[in-house]
Amino acid sequence: MSEARKAVCLLSGGLDSSTCLAYASKQGYDCYALSFDYGQRHRIELEAAAKIAASLGAKKHLIVRIDPRLFEGSALTTGPEVPKSRSGDEIGKEIPVTYVPARNTVFLAHGLAWAEVLGAGDIFLGVNAIDYSGYPDCRQEFINAFEQMANLAIKASVEGRLRIRIHTPLITMSKAEIVKLGALLGLEFRLTHSCYDPDASGRPCGRCDSCLLRRKGFREAGIQDPLEYLA
Q1: Angle at CA 37, nearest 5°, toward 85 and 35?
Q2: pLDDT tens for residues 141-185?
Q3: pLDDT in tens, 80-132
Q4: Is the pTM of this model over 0.85?
Q5: Burial of 2 (0-12, 13-18, 19+ CB in 10 A)
Q6: In CATH, what is the architecture of 6-221?
Q7: 16 vs 198: CA distance, rounded Å
Q8: How far, in Å, CA of 36 to CA of 73, rounded?
Q9: Beta-carbon contacts of residue 143 (< 8 Å; ≥ 6 apart)
Q10: Which of 13, 67, 107, 142 lies in disulfide reach of 45, CB 3.0 to 4.6 Å?
């Protein structure tokens, strides 16, 4: 019996990245989950990521600490307040203050390093370019460019021993389609966390962009969201 392929899966603990990890696992990969502590406003998502990694049988789960000074100024770190109660048109109109500078570039660079160490040619990322908040590093153009760069950057690729492929299975899905896929894969939605601004006990606000997109997705999918929202 052939050895399972290894894959590095970036995992925030949110709906999209958790569904992506479940998808990679279902495809037969040995999954190595990678999360980041980068000074985000709360640690609830890291706790969620640990629970998701365990529930989906990740071979290993690393939480990498990144100096938060690199990401100062975002509403998700030390910047302005998280915007609330925005319409769908407002959410998709421009890059919001919740944008974190070069976040996916930095995260993928760490994933690339771990992939070379593991001898893993596959990296999974749960980015989405349909129901999303306008982040430039969630677009297919960015993913294609990073994959090309990755294969020029590491010794294993230059020597022909490893070909890096970045998988974004959710990138053209609506949030409702992602919810349906998560349900089909048996993802425990109650373990996931999407809110940008939860209360001290971790309850989602229900009004930030991420909560609004998540709730819309569950509603359109006809599936009950198990999370209890503050509003």
Answers
A1: 95
A2: 999 999 999 999 999 999 999 999 999 999 999 999 999 999 999
A3: 898 888 877 676 667 888 889 999 999 999 999 999 999 999 999 999 987 66
A4: yes
A5: exposed
A6: 3-Layer(aba) Sandwich (3.40)
A7: 18
A8: 18
A9: 125, 127, 166, 168, 171
A10: 13
